[in-house]
Design goal:
Layout lengths: L34 H12 L24 E5 L12 H10 L5 H4 L14 E5 H4 L16 H9 L12 H13 L1
Antiparallel strand pairs: 1-2
Length: 180
């Protein structure tokens, strides 16, 4: 921060985004769990990575709100429905750059031949994956901008600006709107 702005602060506020994302999904096979996907999930479990990448919770752990952690495995760099559009050499390079669990380096000399390759898997609790936290707000990687999604991993404990439950926040916003 420059010295001339040192005394200027922006008041705490809520940023709300409403938007539309468009993705062209070509015709593809109906989704089914492949043997390679099952093998990737088993490897994540065997290697001790089967915990939510954001919260660190294991499957079945209680979340702070008392609900139960429900782990899911996300295709991190290339969605399953886009497999036919994917360039697996680019996917391999991406998995080596963003080497989340170390498989990119470990498997550097092995080509990626499937969207279900372990190098592009990310274990997430359901709210961080497909959203729909306890109040239906979309917090997951599929729904919010990446900087907001990743903030859930890198903020101080208890200081995350991305609420998993916005019931009270929405009530406060409604009250402000009524009185404004």
């Amino acid at each position: 921060m420059s010295d001339q702005n040192a005394d200027k602060k922006v008041a705490a506020h809520i940023e709300r985004m409403t938007g539309t994302a468009i993705m062209i999904v070509h015709e593809h096979e109906e989704r089914a769990e492949s043997p390679e996907f099952r093998k990737a999930v088993d490897r994540l479990k065997d290697d001790g990575h089967y915990r939510c990448w954001i919260s660190g919770r294991k499957d079945g752990d209680l979340r702070p709100d008392g609900t139960t952690t429900n782990l899911q495995v996300h295709h991190c760099f290339l969605e399953w429905c886009l497999a036919d559009d994917g360039d697996f050499e680019k996917l391999k390079a991406m998995a080596e750059e963003w080497d989340i669990y170390g498989y990119g380096k470990l498997m550097k000399n092995i080509p990626v031949t499937s969207v279900d390759d372990v190098r592009q898997m990310l274990v997430l609790d359901q709210p961080y994956h497909t959203g729909g936290a306890t109040d239906g707000v979309a917090n997951g990687i599929h729904y919010i901008p990446f900087p907001y999604f990743i903030a859930q991993k890198v903020c101080k404990d208890g200081q995350c600006p991305i609420p998993l439950n916005t019931t009270e926040l929405q009530a406060d916003m409604a009250q402000e709107h009524i009185t404004a």
